[in-house]
Design goal:
CATH class of the largest domain: Alpha Beta
Number of helices: 17
Radius of gyration: 20 Å
CATH architecture of the largest domain: Alpha-Beta Barrel
Structural class: alpha/beta
Order of helices and strands: HEHEHHEHEHHEHEHHEHEHHHHHH
Strand order of the largest sheet: 1-2-3-4-5-6-7-8
Strand content: 5-15%
Number of domains: 2
CATH topology of the largest domain: TIM Barrel
Number of strands: 8
């Protein structure tokens, strides 16, 4: 809800309640080309409480591009956080303000992406080498918004991966007012590894994140990296304040159906795979009527029936038939026949 349209005290109370009730117990990671607005609406059919993150949007794109298009999202996505990429404090402040006005519940700064494109823009994981700059960016954003401003980072970069260096980074940025850090429990190798390899080759070091929480008990520390199941997530949260899942939540989305019960003591949202898909169909139909190609929505549901009878046929049928110029809801209904 944009600040500019807040007209009365009840709307202010609504915003305050939304902010204060934001929970990071279970989050779905920002993933480029994956967690777009269509995917987030689909995931919301599986969990009412998981905090969803957008793909990274650069502050430069918001300043020089079509901000309304880049920030568009549906009301049912909430709670939802916008992840920003950038390193210019003034530009990030402008972007954070736009995010708040667009209604996002949180603004998160990317200090963890190791891609060449991101490094060429002097942001992402390379910012871990410059804690004062990150602190300046956070302070600038916090000075213009009321929603939480958070950081997603690695445990280190290249040979700067000691616990002392990580804790120095956290301490400096926390002094700027950042109270929550999402920490991918791998270091990033900034040259020689692709982004995919950086998600797999540097070894996981969960103990580094646990130590971080012990040494900064007043900060909220969310752990991310390599988490494959809710059982594993539940174990990790014993030593942190929350968990963030990425690829597993996307490739095997039905695991989110147990999140509300597992982490939020809410059993009302448990549905079958078909129930979750049927709840997504009205959104698909609405988007089709707007001219959105069918595959923009259906590519996100390919893993819904993973391991189920007919699941491979469902996936294959959608993959082969949803990309046509005239593909319509009938393609999805035909795919459902394989699993129904």
């Amino acid at each position: 809800m944009p600040k500019s349209v807040v007209n009365n005290a009840s709307e202010l109370i609504e915003i305050d309640c939304r902010i204060s009730s934001l929970s990071h117990k279970f989050c779905v990671a920002p993933m480029m080309d994956w967690t777009d607005r269509h995917d987030r609406v689909f995931l919301r059919q599986l969990s009412s409480h998981a905090l969803l993150y957008t793909e990274m949007v650069t502050s430069a794109a918001l300043k020089h591009g079509d901000a309304n298009y880049l920030l568009q999202h549906s009301p049912e996505e909430h709670p939802v956080a916008l992840q920003l990429g950038g390193s210019n404090p003034a530009e990030l402040a402008e972007a954070a303000k736009l995010a708040e006005q667009a209604g996002y519940d949180e603004v998160n700064l990317n200090v963890g992406c190791p891609s060449d494109r991101v490094q060429s823009g002097a942001f992402g994981a390379c910012l871990m080498a410059d804690p004062p700059l990150v602190a300046n960016c956070i302070a600038s954003m916090k000075s213009v918004v009321d929603v939480p401003v958070t950081v997603k980072c690695r445990i280190g970069i290249d040979d700067r991966d000691s616990q002392a260096e990580l804790e120095d980074f956290i301490a400096v940025v926390a002094d700027s007012g950042c109270e929550l850090f999402i920490v991918h429990a791998r270091k990033a190798i900034l040259s020689g590894l692709s982004p995919k390899e950086n998600r797999e080759i540097p070894p996981l070091n969960y103990e580094s994140v646990f130590t971080l929480k012990r040494n900064f008990p007043d900060l909220s520390i969310i752990i991310n990296g390599g988490i494959k199941s809710l059982t594993e997530a539940s174990s990790l949260i014993q030593n942190t304040d929350g968990v963030m899942l990425g690829r597993e939540a996307y490739q095997n989305p039905y695991l989110l159906n147990e999140v509300d019960n597992y982490f939020f003591d809410d059993q009302q949202n448990q549905r079958s795979r078909l129930d979750c898909l049927r709840k997504f169909i009205p959104y698909i139909e609405k988007e089709l009527n707007k001219g959105t190609p069918l595959h923009h929505m259906t590519r996100h549901i390919l893993g819904l029936f993973k391991g189920q009878k007919g699941g491979k046929q469902f996936r294959r049928y959608l993959s082969e038939n949803s990309y046509g110029k005239d593909s319509n809801i009938g393609v999805l209904l035909d795919a459902i026949s394989y699993v129904n």
